[in-house]
Amino acid sequence: MSGSSPGRFAVWVVLLLFVLPLARAEAQALLQPAESTTRSGSDERIGISIPDALEPWVPWVLEQGPNGRDRRACPLDARGVSRLCAWPGLLQLELDARGGRFEQVWELKAEDWVSLPGDVDLWPQDVRADAEPLPVTARDGRPSARLPAGRHRLTGRFQWRERPESLPLPPETGLLTLALDGRAPISPRLDRDARLWLRDPGQTRADGEGDRLRLEVYRRLDDDLPLRVLTRLELEVSGRAREIRLGPVLLPDGIPANVVSPLPTRLEPDGTLRVQVRPGRWVLEVASHHPGAVTRLSRPTDLTAPWPEREVWAFAAQPERRRVELSGLERLDPSQTGLPGDWARLPVYAAGPGAVLTFTEQGRGDTDPEPDRLRLAREIWLDFDGQGYSARDRLNGDLTRSWRLEAAPGLDLGQARVDDEPVLITRLNAESPPGVEVRRGRLDLVADSRLDAKSDWIPASGWSLALDGATSRLHLPPGWDLVAVSGVDNRPDTWLARWTLLDLFLVLILALGVGRLWGLGWGALALVTLALIWLEPGAPRLVWLHLLAAAALLRLLPDQSESHGLARWRTVVLWYRRLAVLVLLAISLPFLVSEVRSGLYPQLAQPYWSSGGGVVGARMPAPTPSFAFDEALPDAATLSAPAEPGMARRESKVYAPSSLARPAAPPPPLERLDPKALVQTGPGIPDWQWRQVDLSWTGPVGPSDGARLWWLTPGWRLILVIIGGLLLVALGLRLSDLNLSGANLKRRWQAGFRAGTPLSLLALVLILGMTLTPRPTLAADFPSPALLDELRTRLLAPPECLPECLTLSSLALSAEPERLTLDLTLDAATAMAAEILDARSGWSPSSVVLDGVVLERLRRDSDGRLLVPLDPGRHRLQLTGALGAETRIDLPLALDPRRVEVVAADGWRIEGIRTDGRPGRQIQLIRLAGADSGGERPLTQDALPPLLLIERRLEFGLDWRVETRVSRLSAPDFPALVPVPLLPGESVQTAALQVEAGQVRVALAPGQTELRWTSSLKPVAELALTASTDPRLTESWWLDLSPIWHLDSMDLAPIHHRGQGERWLPHWRPLPGESLRLRISRPEGVPGPTLTLDRVDVQVEPGRRGTDTTLTITARSTQGGVYQLQLPEGAETRTLSVDGRTLPLPSDRTTQVELPLVPGTQEMRIGWRLDAPLTASFSPASPDLGQTAVNLTQRLRLPDDRWVLFAWGPGIGPAVLFWGLFVVLAGVALVLGRLHLTPLRWYDWLLLGLGLALSEVWVALLIGGWLFALGWRQRLKTASLVWWRFNLAQFGLVLLTLLALSALIGAVQQGLLGHPEMWIRGHGSSATLLNWYQDRGGPRLPELWVVSVPLWVYRALMLVWALWLAVRLLDWLRWGWQGFARPSPWLDRPKPEPEPLRLDGYDQDNAAGRG
């Protein structure tokens, strides 16, 4: 193969690589949308501003929603969840024995489905909409049709052979008229399932069956304290109205509590129940209780007819209070009884005459609580210097045993928060470890701490109790990596874990192959090299297989062969190896540059640095929990209040101790105030985010469990990077089959030059330039899916007034003997479907008038409530309907009226309205004209014995309080007067209570269900409670113990807490006379910092005459005081503020600044000026913070007329990458300077490259290619070229020269007028803004150092460079012209030479031809 073939191949490679970046830039320009200004549009229907660019997307966005159409014009339902677009009008039904017809008007705000009367068995026929046939399909088992927006009149008919008993109607129908057999419309009977009854159930019932009574008795036994019995009597009565006697109803020793009956009843003292019955089915309930420890219940023996032979008993156990075993009765199948639905899920027994149910107690309370179930989620930050860890623990789970969590050795606990409230870190005694007091139930604890400086071991838990599981997220600083981890239950992202079997296979195959071809030494080198670089991103991998295959094939093919086929195969393999070498260079050069750069500047290994310092685009971590102003020291308001806002809702029961047993000697009082009890602020937690490794342990996880870590530090990483790079170069040269001896290397270079190697070197320069050039980012599609989702969310966002968008201001009620009128005043903040009432429960309006206009469109929701469409504003709604023969009408209101006024009540008594005009949730109308009762007076119930639940909540904080609530468990219709004993030392603080002889005389009026009071207690070390023996009282005790106290012991087990969830309090339900003794102590506070500097931000702005510095400190304190800050010597304080509030400056010129501290988080800002101008070598003076701090950010803002040369600082900061480029340019210049293809020496190449560093890479490549093209023209042998090829080459050279000169002019212009680009990267730094971040430091801030010169120095250097370039360019042009004009600048087309005239032999030839 000729020597020019490699040159042609190199030319094609160069052109290909040259076109790639241009194509990429062109693609970027095509994909990037043109910049345009956004005009603000608006959507008038919803009142939100929409940019004009998104306006065309609104219909499409709404069509992609859950309903597939725009439903914003439809009113919201009462819950604000969905929109109701279809509103039915009056449904008119005309039915007879053969069928009937229906007609209904629907108004739709948007296209939607509407339901029709009927079902799959009674299908409507000939359905039309506005006289046009309408297709009807089945939807959810109902005939339905889809209608567009607008007003539509639907008609249809039914056919049947016999009129059905009922007809299903659309559940949305609100207005209905029914005409049967051509008669006048009648009042329809509609049940809750929207089924219209067409037959009267009473028609098939025979009259005059006589006086009959059927009785079923069911009892529900609730194993509470006291044990409660609910007796349910189900009566079926026929015949005349009369009075009967049942019973005795109560079980022996039962105390009656309440009687609920729709009929007049009276419970006699002997337990007999008198009832005035009338025909119908009735349910009566009698509640009673049995005080004390009940061990047996028996059925009365003196029961007579109509009492049934067998009763059915259901037992509701409360195993959390006590566990019992039942015996003595026969079990029944609940499905074979008539029990109510909720009773049928209980054990059911049959009780005959004289039956006895025996209770055998197995245990009381939660004597052996289940183990705690806690999981730990920990975040660990390794210090930048690797000398320790900062940890943030989050313990979540359920506490059932522990009252205290203590730290294990190795965990230096600094701060703790429970339910986002700070708690004091304490110790029980001098030898015990530090810990925090916790309370049972759902735990959410966040703790900040420091781990031991031993960096190769981290504990899995760090807490003294066993955990169900633990996870740790280990944050690694830049430059750090984990080689391996042991002791964990997962597969963390370590260096060893990243190796796969395929990786190991390939590396071993390559090492064995190299060893077989070049010896064991090279095989070992290959193994080490590949092990170091294989897992690094961007490393050459599969290309080694191609090189190895090419080398092996070349050894099989002889160098010289007489066979042309073998020679051709060897040529193909040679080109295969050359291509593989070129690919290796294309991969290895960017990889080496990236590796060396990440080794020197590890902060550049990722595209961004994330910290709380404010780098644009960085992911912010969770904010550090902050204190509120009133959280400085524990006080009564914070420690005695419920731990969570939801406690009051969850604890619907009330807490009440009854009596206290007085000890023989008064216990010693506890100390009220502890001077050491200062809430700690902790060490502070860094908030940077970089690389993370997740570690996990499955339970149980004990204090001794942990993980052993093997680290790769930044220093060792840099060493390995350098070693790996050198070994990579050596291995690449070996596999490329290059002899590194001097003579052979020189011959190979010379042969390479003749074969086109200069162009190949130019290709390598192009590759290097492409790797050093920042990669452009393609513009994102607009609008993005996230933006469209946000648009849909805003368009469909519910109104802000929810859930209070509708108010029923007033209700006026007018009841006449045959008619009821309701006048409602409604205030609507948005268009809504107002829920009015459930008309199916007793009364339905026949006329609905809204704002004086008869409303023709009403609908019902899925629960049968009547809905009225309302626009925003105030409305008056009038409902009018007839009253039947019912004696009681229920009006369950969906809205709670603010006020109710009874305008008229003729023949009715209105109940459910208080004297102040406020209603309950349901209003009842009771007809005064009684039913036929035989002239007897209704029975009335005498007073029943009261049963009161005394609940005391012991709230022990800095102040001890007792919240007592007395609630009535018996019937509220009768007055109750019961004395309730106070605790010893209890002082009632609630006024208007009668306190006598250590007792509160509780007086409850009829209708009053509860009474509350608050008391104070004197703290004692031992507290004993004893339950009352009064059968009218039952006890309930709750203990709410603040974390500043520790419960040492209790001698009575609390009841078991059912379920998991929020924090719960210990709860006791004692038997009469039972005692509880509590021993309480006060732990000592652990000394710790009360001030933490969570963030320090320093911004330095040096100038020609001085330096301005602004220091911003985010401090977190738990006590007030003064923070002292030492400024640098000679500093002049200029600004001073705390939380944006300006403070007066110090009166004298002092460097000691005092800032006021308040409990909580505050931001302090101090500005000062120093007479220290900016110099070439500048290091700003730093203040003395007085203590360590975390998250230190230092910013150095330089003037625009400075040229930064070097920058140095701690932690994560800027890197001046120009000097790396300088080293690369120097190496390339040395290589190119040894080439004799051009007259440029190595310093010419270096100066040319430095001057072109500001330009684009293609400019440097164009100029370099032009110079090599001129050198190639010098050596071109023109004698063998055809004239047109020579002229074409000359024309291309001229064009290339014009392009190169234009690029040089542009580069000179940019260099003289532009700004120096030093490629300053890292932590958001730029040419004039340098940022450093340190995770932990102080009291002195880390020292910074910057070397910079005025910008005129750069201008002068660029001017000298431009003059040098102009002089040298003349020499290069003269040299280029000499080659261009040899032998001539242009070749003319050669003229064809005439053929010479030949006379000899002419006649003979002609003669022969003629012959």
From TrEMBL:
Positions of transmembrane segments: 517-535, 541-558, 579-600, 715-733, 753-772, 1203-1233, 1245-1268, 1288-1308, 1344-1367
Keywords, sorted A to Z: Membrane, Transmembrane, Transmembrane helix
Keyword Transmembrane: yes
Domain of life from the UniProt record: Bacteria
Positions of region (Disordered): 641-676, 1388-1411
Residue stretches of biased makeup (Basic and acidic residues): 1388-1401
Official protein name in the record: Uncharacterized protein
